[in-house]
Amino acid sequence: MARRVVLHVGAMKSGTTYLQGALYKNKARLAERGFLVPGTRWRHQIEAVLDVKGHRKHPQGDPVTGAWDRLVAEVDAWDGTALVSVELLAPVGPETVERVASSFDGVTPEIVLSLRDINRQIPSMWQELIQNGMDWTWGEFLTAVNRSRPGSPERRHTKPGRRFWSEQDMVAIARRWSQAGPLHLVTVPPPGSPATLLLERFGAAMGFDPEGMQSPPPKNTSLGAATVEVLRGLNAELKERGLAYPAAMGLRKHTLGKRLMPALTVDDPRIGLQAPRWTQSFTRDQAAELRGLDATIHGDLDDLAPVDVGGIDPRKVTDKQVRDAAVATSASLRTDLNKKLADPTIPGEAVDPGEGRKAPARAVSALADLVEWSVRREELVRT
User: Fold this and answer.
1) Does the pLDDT of residue 54 top 90, yes or no?
2) What is the CA radius of gyration of the chain?
3) 3-state class percentages of the chain: helix first, strand second, coil last, to nearest 5
4) b/e per residue, 113-125, with b = 16+ CB within 10 A?
5) CA distance 26 to 206
6) Residues 145, 147, 153, 156: is their CA dihedral positive or negative?
7) Which of 269, 291, 359, 363 is most enclosed, with most CB atoms within 10 A?
8) What is the pTM of this model?
9) What is the C-alpha separation between 350 and 6, in angstroms, rounded?
10) How far is CA 8 from CA 35, 183, 184, 195, in A?
């Protein structure tokens, strides 16, 4: 029976990919120190959380039924501390919190919630949601986040706003999960802090000393304004073709969004956002409520003060930048498919879409042709 279980429940875009990478990069080292990171890879923890949330399948189609019970059995068999980290837990409701909290044999779990300043979260969440199949424009998303914010006397619930705040309402998430067990809050350090500081704070909350641990390679490189616009347009195009997300999830998110697009050598300015005025008072109110909770703080709640994000307003990205990013993405994807499949039926080279306002749409359409071809081919292979 595990003597201690620690659940890192999020929040999304608060350094979670880096921290999860550190756990699995150092899985064997942690085991030697008495810490279990259950599952041979992080995907197994994701499947377990999807199962406990009531899903039957992973968005990519693999069954997940029984995955939570398998994770619990692995934890219960461990004589030490078990560490689970899946940000999909952050927005779950009270029933799921209760089920998770009562899962482990004779152990009340400790809860870790990592927090990052809200202004850095806005552009990070927008591009993450685009990588997860959404097609909301930057202006639409920014307005929705503002109008849907908790505590606003004129709060208006919108789909983009609900999606953002379900993952980023720090107080609501902390209160909900504090019912499961002792609560730890880990603040993401401000820009310019030592690279190891977040892992040190996380280790203090989880109970391990990060001294001597290997750093994982970066896996969640940010996209620029042009490539996010390409991916957003691709999502809209595929939806019109009857291929709404999660169709081609692996191709869109992991192949394009996480691997090929970050490596493009095109003019792709960083997404920037000067902290809106409302973020200042909102953060003060949230920090005050967090201080009132019975929680152990690792770091400083002052780290949540909104920080300006350098870069451009995505609405100022040019047609040429979007066109060039789409053409480069199409060429990169075709090369990648050829390497993997060596299939002569892969659509031929896209025609240069030329200049003009319609050029980005034509280039995105050519990219959608490749993605659709891949989806249809996969369907044929499976049948």
Assistant:
1) yes
2) 22
3) 50, 10, 40
4) bbbbbbbbbbbbb
5) 14
6) negative
7) 363
8) 0.94
9) 50
10) 14, 10, 9, 20
